[in-house]
Amino acid sequence: MTDGSPGPARRSIAPPSVLGDPERLRALADTGLDAVPDEAFDRFARLVSDLLDVPVALVSLVSTDRQFFPGAVGLPDPWSERRQTPLSHSFCQHVVGIEAPMVLPDARLYPRVRDNLAIDDLGVVAYAGMPLTDLSGRVLGSLCAIDNKPRAWTAAQLRTLADLAAACSSELRLRIALDGAQEARRRVVQAHGRLELLAGVSETLAGTLDVGTALRRLAATMVPLLADWCLLTLIGPTGLPREVVSVHRDPARAADVDRFGDLLRTGLSPESIIRAVLRTGQPRLGSVASLADVTRGTTHPEMASIASRLGIASYLSVPLRGAGGTVLGAITLVNGGQRQQFDDRDLLTAVDIGRRAGQAVGNSSMYGEQRHVAEVLQHSMLPRLPMVAELELAARYQPAADRVEVGGDWYDAFVQPDGDVIAAIGDVAGHDIEAAATMGQLRNLVRGNAFGRPDAVGSLMADLDGAIRGLRLPIAATATLVRICPQRAGVHEVTWSNAGHPPALVVRAGGAVEALEATPEPLLGLARPSPRSSQSTVLATGDTLLLYTDGLIERRDRSIDEGLAELVGRLTGTDTLPLDDLCDLLLASIRHREDDTALLAVRAR
């Protein structure tokens, strides 16, 4: 046993340095105990009180600034309700400090404790405390017997107290092991959740090639699963934020988090964590954060007050890396005080998300640039429609959804020297640059072959077919060629020839729809020459001729005939609709753009 030696000097003893040992404090936290009654430890206190015949017995656990009693008998008020005291009232801290029993027949005689406030406030005179240890032998507290008068502790009493302390330590170790098992289960669940999150991120980012859409979906995936709120920042050519997506788990905070994101574009100071990540490409983890971090990192005072409302107690920020490791932006996650602090596992997860998101953003940016170039190229190949007094013309071209390549769909219209109008539409096989180049060749062949010639359209189509074969052009295409002879009287003669293309439609004044059907003729560009015929009809004032490619009627889940019937039904009764509105209506009706679509409409005046 260890006790203090009496002496004349009176001095205050500082708490033992061992109290702050991180491993000891972690074990203490793992017990899950606090200043509230626990039946098992109250039972140990009652046994000590009964077997040693003392008025006060405690199971006392000691932290860096207090001792608390999950088991207690006989404490005076108000300590019996509080179940804890500051270290100024603690004898048990010395048991922790010396890591051995402390036995005092009369505490008032020992310099180590004679100035302790527990002597006057709790009536501690005689004290006997046995260490309570974890499995590694770290002393977490004391099982102690207390009397309010001097007492000579017997060997039998101290042996009983030591046996009870050993049993009490076993209960503490069981609690620690139980907490460890629960923590292990929590980590397994968290790890599984992180794997699901990463899989979900990959699926989310793979679902679109639009940068803005990808960022918004990514933010919705991470909040609230990984954080209370987040900021996704993309940088511009200057290295500063050009686009910020912000989201908070609480919809009521949407205005605040949006405002914070707006200010972030121009309000980052040189000390900003986000700027450091964008500059260095190194992730940053702030397990403990405060508004001071926001104040240092921003030039807009408003941002700190907004962050106070949003909540900030922990953060992490990781780079978005594109191809070659280029930093494209940053992901910043923030937790408020009600949520667990970020740790290294969260940081590793966020770094992985940043890598995946950076690749997706890089691909999306490249896609956007390529799509823009492709659309400019495609539209540069589409002609300007002529102005004809007796006719109104309108046309549209729409590429397939989420496709970078230009396609082979085309239309054309031009006026002959004699005033006739040649209209054409076609679809070259393929959806790539080669198809677009072939489409350009075919359109130029149509113009060169037809311009200035009064031949029937069937003959023009046959000559076109011969030119493709003779020039050995690798063209396989459908096409419809139409000649319209405008008449001042309002009835215009129309002749057409169809090479494997969907039939043209006429919306008659009054709303009825007529398909210009004929005996099917083969595609252009086949190895053997094929006869080409001309068919005729008329357009009266108010009639509309519609030429289109199969993107308007073709779907994977239905036949061409079903698509054509649906188109006829949609056109019925549209004779009074302005021509531009009619074209827009037809394009808007395409629910899933699986193919490029071109259409050319001609209305008789």
Overview of the structural elements:
The protein is built from 16 helices and 21 strands. It has 605 residues and is α+β, with helices and mostly antiparallel strands. It folds into three domains: 17-178, Beta-Lactamase; 208-372, GAF domain (Beta-Lactamase); 382-604, PPM-type phosphatase domain (Phosphatase 2c, domain 1), CATH 3.60.40.10. The strands form four sheets. The protein has a six-stranded antiparallel β-sheet, sandwiched between helices. It has a five-stranded antiparallel β-sheet with strand order 8-7-11-10-9, sandwiched between helices. A five-stranded antiparallel β-sheet has the order 12-21-20-17-18, covered by helices on one side. A hairpin with a 5-residue loop joins β10 and β11. The termini are far apart. Residues 4-15 have low confidence and may be disordered. Residues 36-182, 210-371 form the GAF domain. InterPro entries: Bact_Sigma-Reg, GAF, GAF-like_dom_sf, PPM-type-like_dom_sf, PPM-type_phosphatase-like_dom.
Largest sheet: 6 strands, antiparallel
CATH architecture of the largest domain: 4-Layer Sandwich
Strand content: 15-25%
Q: Which fold does the CATH topology of the largest domain refer to? A: Phosphatase 2c, domain 1
Spatial strand order of the main sheet? 3-2-1-6-5-4
GO molecular function: phosphatase activity
Domain PPM-type phosphatase: 388-604
Pfam families: GAF, SpoIIE
Protein name: Stage II sporulation protein E
